[in-house]
């Protein structure tokens, strides 16, 4: 039965179960991938012969966020009826699936992460795109920034989206290429901090094949390649904020998850010397940085968001159809005349001191190792980011904070941790006094982990920004992903 854009059917029980019917299944038409006349895989072999069967390929949920493709074959009384059902469903899919991509530009990173991207695409993803009738131009990257440069230079008008098969680094390439290309085509100077950037029209798809796949995990709820491919096929759209980082007025990088100074910056810097041991280098460098317990002096200035809409500790999760993100679209349209160009006229808050970590995250930054992430209630598309300040504390106190990223406890319910929902931030480092610098050189773990330098580096979505002074601006819904947000309840 086809009613209200939903296809429903009831399975028949075996004859021994007289008078009883099987379960009733309902599938929204927008979650049907394809319809063909005939019996599943056999239909291609009997394409010339009329059939009274038709097969529906549709999404099936195996867990809260994991999707799989399922094929259900129906029997009708005649070949014509099977043809009619096939035609009606195909027409209905077209009428309500206007946002489905017809042609994609796909980049595969064959070396990054687990080194399995090419195999994942050829065995799991390409057959799905073929079934859905999606045209594909596939490029295997051969160097760093290959995908970014291609997007910057080539004509993209024929594509409905760009897709990366790889990890967070590959996504970052697509993000930079698409944002920069959009600003170039729009005549916007992205190097100006006060510039209002033009949102990108092309959507970005992520087929996870990296080490952490943080962006995919935080926007879909799982790092499963088939699930992500199905979101792309049915044309799901999830807008997302982007943070732009500047050093002395010059654009450094764009990011969507972590911008971290202190601990996370030092971990990344240290890990660069251990690339030969693979992803384990992050665990080892993290252990060394915990032992060293480095702190950095500086001043954090930030423009806090309106607390009446949301707060980092309100216990509300950003989920599919999030009202906070939806309402922010209308609210920021009304405030268009008072956006980033007037930031300097607003009241900035200031905190000075010694910090173990200064983190800015535009999303929860959840990953398989940390299901809630750095900031569990951060929103994907509300025009804000969460500023997390871990002030001077001892090694065991910092470990307690880190452990709470994995045990569901409130990582902000500690006296030395502060969190603010912001629209902009700037950090100004301070030089150490001679006595303090000498004390650090004589520290317990200085010989093992190295003495604490005067300043740290910034970790910007896994890339090192070799500067200490930095300003960050949040650009509302600058890009769109082939996703719908994590399905589930909004409250934890």
Automatic annotation (TrEMBL):
Xref: InterPro entries: ATP-NAD_kinase_N (IPR017438), CERK_C (IPR045363), CERK_PH (IPR057465), Diacylglycerol_kinase_cat_dom (IPR001206), Lipid_Phosphate_FormReg (IPR050187), NAD/diacylglycerol_kinase_sf (IPR016064), PH_domain (IPR001849)
Domain PH as annotated: residue spans: 1-94
GO cellular component: membrane
PROSITE patterns per UniProt: DAGK, PH_DOMAIN
GO molecular function annotation: ceramide kinase activity
Membrane-crossing residue ranges in chain numbering: none
Sequence ranges assigned to domain DAGKc in this UniProt record: 99-249
Any one GO biological process: ceramide metabolic process
Pfam families found in the cross-reference section: CERK_C, DAGK_cat, PH_CERK
SUPFAM superfamilies: NAD kinase/diacylglycerol kinase-like (SSF111331)
Entry-linked PANTHER family: CERAMIDE KINASE, SPHINGOSINE KINASE
Protein name: Ceramide kinase
Organism: Hymenochirus boettgeri
């Amino acid at each position: 039965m086809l009613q209200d854009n939903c296809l429903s059917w009831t399975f028949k029980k075996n004859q021994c179960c007289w008078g009883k019917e099987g379960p009733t299944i309902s599938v929204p038409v927008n979650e049907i991938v394809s319809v063909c006349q005939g019996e599943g895989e056999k239909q291609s072999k009997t394409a010339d012969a009329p059939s009274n069967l038709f097969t529906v390929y549709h999404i099936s949920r195996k867990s809260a966020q994991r999707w799989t493709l399922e094929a259900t074959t129906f029997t009708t009384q005649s070949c014509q009826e099977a043809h009619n059902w096939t035609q009606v469903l195909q027409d209905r899919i077209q009428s309500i699936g206007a946002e489905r991509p017809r042609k994609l530009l796909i980049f595969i990173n064959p070396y990054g992460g687990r080194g399995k991207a090419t195999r994942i695409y050829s065995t799991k993803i390409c057959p799905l795109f073929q079934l859905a009738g999606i045209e594909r131009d596939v490029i295997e990257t051969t160097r760093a920034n290959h995908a970014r440069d291609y997007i910057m230079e080539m004509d993209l008008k024929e594509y409905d989206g760009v897709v990366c098969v790889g990890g967070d680094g590959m996504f970052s390439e697509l993000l930079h290429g698409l944002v920069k290309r959009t600003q170039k085509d729009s005549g916007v100077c992205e190097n100006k901090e006060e510039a209002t950037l033009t949102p990108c029209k092309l959507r970005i798809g992520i087929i996870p094949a990296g080490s952490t796949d943080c962006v995919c995990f935080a926007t879909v709820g799982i790092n499963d390649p088939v699930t992500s491919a199905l979101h792309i096929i049915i044309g799901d759209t999830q807008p997302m904020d982007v943070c732009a980082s500047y050093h002395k007025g010059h654009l450094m990088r764009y990011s969507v998850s972590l911008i971290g100074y202190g601990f996370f910056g030092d971990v990344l810097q240290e890990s660069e010397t251990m690339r030969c041991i693979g992803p384990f280098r992050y665990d080892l460098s993290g252990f060394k940085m915990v032992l060293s317990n480095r702190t950095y002096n500086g001043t954090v200035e930030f423009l806090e968001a309106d607390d009446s809409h949301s707060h980092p500790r309100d216990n509300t999760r950003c989920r599919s159809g999030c009202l906070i993100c939806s309402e922010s679209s209308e609210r920021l349209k009304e405030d268009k005349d008072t956006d980033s160009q007037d930031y300097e006229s607003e009241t900035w808050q200031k905190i000075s001191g010694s910090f173990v970590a200064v983190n800015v995250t535009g999303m929860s930054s959840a990953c398989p190792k940390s299901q809630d992430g750095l900031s569990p209630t951060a929103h994907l598309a509300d025009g804000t980011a969460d500023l997390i300040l871990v002030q001077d504390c001892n090694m065991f106190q910092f470990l307690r904070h880190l452990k709470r990223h994995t045990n569901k406890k409130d990582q902000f319910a500690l006296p030395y941790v502060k969190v603010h929902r912001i629209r902009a931030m700037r950090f100004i480092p301070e030089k150490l006094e001679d006595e303090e610098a000498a004390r650090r050189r004589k520290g317990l773990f200085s010989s093992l982990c190295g003495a604490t330098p005067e300043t740290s580096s910034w970790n910007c979505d896994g890339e090192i920004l070799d500067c200490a002074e930095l300003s960050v601006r949040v650009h509302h819904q600058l890009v769109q992903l082939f996703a719908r947000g994590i399905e589930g309840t909004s409250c934890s």
